[in-house]
Amino acid sequence: MTVDVEDYFQVSAFEPYIAKEQWDVLPRRVERNTHRILDLFNEKKIKATFFTLGWVAERYPDLIRRMVKDGHELACHGYNHIRVTEQTPEQFRDDVSKTKKLLEDLSGEHVNGYRAASYSIGAKNLWALNILLEEGFKYSSSIYPVKHDIYGMPDAPRFGYEPIENQHFKEIPITTVRFGNKNFPCGGGGFFRFYPYALSKWAFNRINNEESESAIFYFHPWEIDPEQPRVHGLNLKTRTRHYLNLNRMENRITRLLTDFNWDTMANVFQINKIG
After folding, report:
1. How far apart are CA 99 and CA 120, in angstroms?
2. CA distance 7 to 237
3. Does residue 189 form part of some domain?
4. pTM of the model
5. Reduced to 3 states, what is the DSSP secondary structure of residue 178?
6. Would you list the DSSP string of 36-61?
7. Is 55 domain-assigned?
8. At 273, is the pLDDT very low, low, confident or very high (cuts 50, 70, 90)?
C-alpha cells in the first residue's frame, strides 16, 4: 500500500494552469487529508509506504514524524514534483539527494525508496536508476509498464526486478493485469476511480492467486477530498481525470483495505535485506 503525498495543486496535469510560484498562496489540503489517511490505516491496522514531496515535508514536519511514529515507511517523491523527463542528470541528482537528506533529518529514519513524479522514468532516462543507486536508495517504484499519453514503458517487466547488473537495487513497478499481449493498469489512482470496484478486486485476486505476486496500490491524499478547491479553465480530459468519482474514493479504499492484506514496500519486498 503506497501513498504519493502531494497536494491537489501539485499534480503534473495542472502544470499549465498553476505556476509553482503560486503554491504557497493556494489553500492547502495535504496535511488534513494525510492525517485522515493515517487515521484510516490505524483503524484498519495497515502499514504503508508514503512517497512524500520534500516541499510538503518542509512545511509539515510533524506530519512526517507521525508517519514514522505510526510505523509506516517514509520514502522520497522528489522535492517539488518535477518530472524526471524535465531534468538533466545533474538536476535530478541534486533533487533526490536534497530531498532524501531532508526526509531523513526530519524523521530520523533511513530513506530507501523513491518514486518519480508521474512515473517519469522510462526507456529514455534509465540513467536515473544509476543515480538513485549512487545516492543510497535501495529501490525505485517509478516505471509503469503501460502505454499512456504522459508516462509508461510498456515493455518493462510487470513485477519487481533488478535493472542494474550486479547491483542490489530493485525497480518495483506499479501493478498491471495482462490481457493478450497488452498490460492494463490496475494499481490505483485515476484508474481505480474510473473502474468499478469489482474489476479492481478481480485484478488483484488474479495477480495474488494466479500469478503468485504481490500487488502495488497507490493513491494521493487529494483523492479522498471531494471538497477540494476547483481549478478553473481545465481542459475536459484533465478535469475528468482529476475529479472523477472523488466522492467514492475513500469508501473504495476502505473496502480494499478490508478485502486484502497490505504492508509497506520495505516489508513486502524485504528491502532492508538487500545487499
Report:
1. 17
2. 20
3. yes
4. 0.96
5. strand
6. HHHHHHHHHT---EEEE-HHHHHH-H
7. yes
8. low
Q: Which residues of 74-88 are buried (b: 16+ CB within 10 A; e: fewer)?
A: bbbbbbbbbbbbebe
Task: Find out whether 265 and 113 touch, Cβ atoms under 8 Å.
Answer: yes
Tell me the C-alpha distance between 76 and 116, whole Å: 8
Return the exposure string of 180-209: e unless at least 16 CB atoms fall within 10 Å of the residue's CB, then b: eeebebbbbbbbbbebebeebbebbeebee
Residue type, 116: A
Quote the domain boundaries for residue 88. Answer: 2-270
CA-to-CA dists, residue 97 to 45, 132, 159, angstroms: 32, 9, 26
Total structural domains within the chain: 1
* Chain-centroid distance, C-alpha 91: 21
Q: Which residues contact 261 (CB under 8 A, 6 or more apart)?
A: none
- Chain centroid, CA 264 distance in Å: 12
Residue 172 included in any domain: yes
Judge contact between 30 and 6, C-beta under 8 A: yes
Query: What is the share, in percent, of the chain residues with pLDDT greater than 90?
Result: 89
On whether residue 155 sits in a domain, the answer given is: yes
How many other CB atoms sit within 10 Å of the CB of residue 25? 7
Helix (H) or strand (E) holding 179: strand 176-179
Q: What is the CATH number of the domain that holds 154?
A: 3.20.20.370
Cβ proximity of 154 and 184 under 8 Å: no
**Is residue 111 scored above 70 in pLDDT?**
yes
Place of cell 547491483: 167
